[in-house]
Structures are given as C-alpha cells and as structure tokens.
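Let us practice reading a record.
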Amino acid sequence: MAREDPRHADISDIAWTVAITIIVFWLAHGYAHLIGSRLDGEIRPSWRDAWVSLVEHWPIVRSAVPPLLALVVAAALHGTSDDAQQAALWTDAAMLAVFGHAAGHASGLDGPRLWAYSAGAAALGMVIIAAEVLIHH
C-alpha cells in the first residue's frame, strides 16, 4: 500500500492492487509451505494438503482487512486518495503495535521487556510510514 502513489492512483486502484497482492502472497505462502513440507519425503501433496496449507496461511489475508477497510471508509467520507492511504497505513502501524504487544504478552514478557518488544513492533509500523514518505515525497 505504501508503494502506491495516491497522486497518480485513485482509491479503487489502490484497493484492488492491495487486494490482488495479498491474494497472490497468500497463495504463494501456502504453496511454498505445501511444497516445502514435502521435500523431505516421497509423499505427493493432495488437494486436501493444499487446502490445509491455504487455511493455515489465511491470517495473511485476514490481516489486510482492517487497513483496506480504513482505506474504503476514508474514501466514503470523501477523503482524498492521499488521506485514505494515510488512514490505511496508520491502521497498519497501529495493528503492528497492538499485535506486537499481544504477542509479547502471550510469550510471557512483562514490564520493561514487554514494552520494549511492543515498541519494536510499533517501530516497524513507523518504518513503513517513513518508507511511504520517502517514496512519494
């Protein structure tokens, strides 16, 4: 999403590009996992194995929904393409911070270590936003 230039692409172009990219990444991850899990043996993967692999990688698609919704909502509120893209990127950054905190907590971190872990996840979100700024400005 950060790569798309809102000055040259409208919101629907950005949304379609992101949606298609996410689906391709999901299929590629599922396929790589399926093939990689079969390299050690002589068992041919089945259609069921392929389905299980895709289901296991569904979080790739699911994680794209909130930023895409932010993009669409910003557009529905008559925001510019740039406003909608910024809403989506900030949603993405917030998700990284929240999920980073949740993952750190689930792994047993607490106190300063938990907050340092959370800050690292939030910093990744800031890197994404900084990359968008560097690419387009």
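A brief commentary: The radius of gyration is 18 Å.
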